[in-house]
Specification:
This protein is an alpha/beta fold. The protein folds into three domains: 219 residues, TIM Barrel, CATH 3.20.20; 204 residues, Glycosidases (TIM Barrel), CATH 3.20.20.80; 84 residues, Immunoglobulin-like (Sandwich), CATH 2.60.40. The strands form seven sheets. Strands 1-2-5-11-12-13-14-17 form an eight-stranded parallel β-barrel. The protein has a six-stranded antiparallel β-sheet with strand order 18-19-20-25-22-23, covered by helices on one side. Strands 7-9-8 form a three-stranded antiparallel β-sheet, covered by helices on one side. A hairpin with a 4-residue loop joins strand 15 and strand 16. The chain is globular. It binds alpha-D-glucopyranose. The site of alpha-D-glucopyranose (GLC) has 10 residues, from loops.
């Protein structure tokens, strides 16, 4: 029985968090009591407006705080337009999503954003309006309701670092409004911007060089870390933080379960620094965590921190003062593609070793690729012991994965090639990066088979890791690169569009035609996902370790939970290999059901195996 009124519930949560909240807020905003009181009013207002059904959901989730840590959690990331035209289309395709076993949908940015100056929706001109072609806010709330009905949760980007130059604040700032200008970083001349440029790296060195843009209407220079039409918000101004928190809570109140904090390391700027991961960012994230815990405690924050592990992990916060509940396992993702290109698992072992040593509470989102490029943020300090040089190695990886290297069937494209630094990143769908596209083009079934095996192996590796696996929509049927963007003047200079193509529903139908690429991948993935869902050894609480295979082509991962043990082996080479392991006898190959020993195990090229033993069930 629920006896508390909503109002009491709110008061209790606020008073519990009040001291810390006020302390953090006062520290950031120089004891600005008026701004803080307004912030608390915002919390109250959004709590009052939160639909009762969502408040009930919050209560259910509070009673089951591990609700998002189940082994059957499976995410899918998609552009609404590319997947189904609009939000109603997504709703009408929920059957397909369920068929994929997906219970977590990350909808790519769908708020209002000017055509041709939207960075794929990451330049928001109105945080309370859906892009008209995609539907309305009511459609989004309807979709969330439908999803909750089916036990599916929704994730949405909150693009908080910047607004579009068409946002109402930016328009006022252009017209000379001083209050509006104080929400951004405006400078009368290039003196201070030039000082910033000395210490701040570039995000898009080729497509959008520099961190500032001249705004002719205002006759001033404005900070634009990303594209020139994405104006950085000034979070040192409490009005910005208050209004943006309100925007975030507004989205939560539409039924969004998970907010992806886009580009969160960038939100605080300080002259003389690199303007990344500054301590104030953590204060802000902590306040946002507290705010959502008060207003909508059944929701989560996912931080987008595409950086090395030592920068990522602090965004979890501490046990007493958590920040984001979930973060991307970005270095593992990049190290995986390094392993594909080198067929050498040593870096991946080292990287996984780092992740395995982290507390079980930390929840990572694992993925093979997303809507962005693959950046080569690898541990070069580690690689140097093998004589690898950073610039030369990046060139090798790119040459291999773009198929430039003789004999490579991989079909990626470069992204933001920066000749100054010898740096370039990579784009492409998983299937094309596995060689499937080239094989099909050549009509070479041996190569196609090899590519499909690699693709499945990568997904098996993804599903072996602790955390939530996220599939990019289309990868479940091996969708290939889309070169159409080359012809679109609004997209041609951004190669990320190569892997953001429209979902091909005709191809999806082929998932029932035996022997097709679609069928082979779809069914292999479903089988693996179902096995994962039904074995607790895949859960976040399992112990994980690197199982030494004495073979640099074969990755071995061990998992143990409550009597269940799993040895997972992955042969990243295109030749047959042996894993020189000496583990248990009488294991079950989870995929075939056959009983075998986990000893000196032979694997064909790009073969993997899940060897399982329930140690608490002793035979004989
Ligand atoms: C994030 C997004 C990326 C976008 C950038 C700027 O990194 O993932 O797609 O370009 O933010 O908003």
């Amino acid at each position: 029985m629920i006896s508390k009124t909503w109002e009491t519930e709110f008061r209790e949560r606020l008073s519990q968090a009040y001291d810390e909240l006020k302390w953090l807020y006062y520290e950031l905003y120089h004891s600005d009591g008026k701004a803080f009181d307004y912030f608390c009013t915002v919390l109250h207002e959004f709590y009052r407006n939160r639909p009762d059904a969502l408040k009930e959901l919050d209560r259910r989730r509070l009673a089951d705080p591990s609700w998002y840590k189940r082994t059957d959690m499976l995410g899918m990331q998609m552009y609404v337009g590319a997947f189904a035209g609009n939000l109603k289309g997504v709703e009408s395709h929920l059957d397909y999503i369920k068929d994929c076993g997906v219970n977590y949908i990350h909808l790519m940015p769908l708020l209002q954003s000017p055509e041709g100056r939207s960075d794929g929706g990451y330049a928001v001109s109105d945080f309370r309006q859906v892009q008209p072609e995609l539907g309305t806010m009511e459609d989004l709330a309807d979709l969330a309701r439908e999803c909750h009905h089916d036990d599916i949760c929704l994730c949405l980007d909150f693009v908080m670092n910047h607004t579009s130059e068409d946002h109402e604040w930016a328009l006022k700032a252009k017209a000379g409004d001083a209050e509006a200008q104080s929400r951004y970083f405006f400078y009368d001349n290039w003196d201070i911007p030039s000082e910033f440029e000395k210490t701040v790296p570039q995000v898009f060195p080729t497509t959008a060089p520099g961190n500032f843009t001249w705004c002719p209407q205002a006759g001033k220079v404005v900070m634009t870390t990303f594209y020139p039409y994405q104006w950085d918000l000034n979070y040192a101004n409490p009005v910005v933080f208050n209004d943006m928190t309100a925007n975030m809570l507004f989205l939560y109140n539409q039924g969004i379960d998970i907010i992806r904090l886009d580009a969160v390391p960038y939100i605080w700027k300080e002259l003389g620094t690199n303007c990344r991961n500054l301590p104030q960012v953590h204060n802000l994230v902590r306040i946002m965590h507290i705010a959502s815990n008060i207003v909508c405690p059944g929701t989560l924050m996912l931080g987008e921190v595409v950086m090395e592990p030592s920068k990522v992990v602090p965004y979890f916060g501490t046990v007493e003062k958590p920040e984001c509940q979930m973060l991307y396992n970005v270095t593992t993702m990049a190290s995986t593609w390094h392993t594909v290109a080198t067929k050498d698992v040593r870096l991946l072992k080292h990287q996984l070793g780092t992740v395995f040593a982290l507390p079980h509470d930390y929840m990572f989102l694992n993925y093979l690729r997303c809507h962005d490029d693959i950046g080569w943020g690898l541990d070069y300090g580690f690689l140097r012991q093998f004589g690898l040089d950073e610039v030369a190695h990046k060139k090798y990886l790119n040459d291999f994965l773009t198929g430039t290297l003789f004999g490579s069937d991989m079909r990626g494209e470069l992204y933001n090639n920066d000749p100054r630094l010898g740096d370039a990143r990579l784009c492409g769908t998983t299937a094309s990066l596995c060689g499937i596209e080239a094989a099909e083009y050549e009509g070479n079934s041996v190569k196609a088979d090899r590519g499909i095996r690699l693709d499945i192996l990568l997904h098996a590796f993804l599903l072996t890791q602790s955390g939530i696996p996220i599939i990019y929509s289309g990868d479940e049927i091996g969708q290939l690169n889309d070169y159409g963007y080359h012809q679109d003047p609004l997209k041609w200079d951004d190669s990320r569009y190569i892997h953001r193509g429209s979902f091909n529903w005709e191809e999806a139908e082929k998932r029932y035609t035996p022997g097709t690429r679609q069928e082979r991948l779809f069914h292999a993935l479903r089988e693996l996902e179902q096995l994962r869902a039904s074995h607790e050894v895949f859960g976040n609480d399992a112990d994980t370790w690197i199982c030494e295979t004495y073979n640099d082509h074969v990755l071995g991962i061990g998992r143990y939970y409550n009597g269940e043990k799993l040895i997972a082996l992955f042969n990243f080479s295109d030749e047959d290999q042996t894993a020189w392991i000496s583990e248990d006898s009488g294991c079950t190959n989870l995929l075939t059901g056959t009983v075998c020993d986990a000893r000196n195990y032979g694997l064909h090229s790009y073969e993997f195996v899940w060897l399982y033993k329930n140690l608490s069930v002793q035979s004989g």
